[in-house]
């Protein structure tokens, strides 16, 4: 789990059905909102699945 994530960091999220690449848009204690390129999508991911890229 990345402890030093900040807003707008580029990350990879290894989710159960997909691997997503995007930017950190919002942080909470145990999850991260990831924004896709161009703002086409937003997905919540558990923080332990997110890797600073």
Keyphrases for this structure?
mainly beta, single chain, five-stranded antiparallel beta sheet, 5 strands, 53 residues, globular
Judged by helices, strands and strand pairing, the structural class is mainly beta
The count of helical stretches stands at 0
The ordered string of helix (H) and strand (E) elements is: EEEEE
- Which oligomeric form is depicted? single chain
Which spans have pLDDT < 50 for at least 5 consecutive residues?
Answer: none
The beta-strand count equals 5
What is the strand arrangement across the widest sheet?
Answer: 4-3-2-1-5
What's the shape? globular
What's the pLDDT, averaged over the residues?
A: 92
The gyration radius over C-alpha positions equals: 10 Å
Taking the alpha carbons of the first and last residues, their distance comes to: 13 Å
Largest sheet: 5 strands, antiparallel
Commentary on this structure:
The protein has no helices and 5 strands. With 53 residues, it is an all-beta fold. The chain has a 5-stranded antiparallel β-sheet with strand order 4-3-2-1-5, with no helix packed on it. A hairpin with a 3-residue loop joins strand 2 and strand 3. The two termini are 13 Å apart.
List strands and helices in order, with pairings:
Elements: E1 10-15, E2 18-27, E3 31-35, E4 42-46, E5 50-52
Write a concise synopsis of the structure shown.
This protein is an all-beta fold. It is 0% helix and 55% strand. It is globular, with a radius of gyration of 10 Å.
């Amino acid at each position: 789990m990345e402890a030093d994530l900040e807003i707008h960091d580029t990350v990879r999220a290894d989710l159960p059905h997909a691997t997503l690449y995007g930017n950190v848009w919002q942080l909470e204690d145990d999850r991260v909102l990831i924004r896709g390129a161009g703002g086409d999508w937003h997905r919540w991911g558990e923080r332990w699945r997110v890797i600073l890229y």
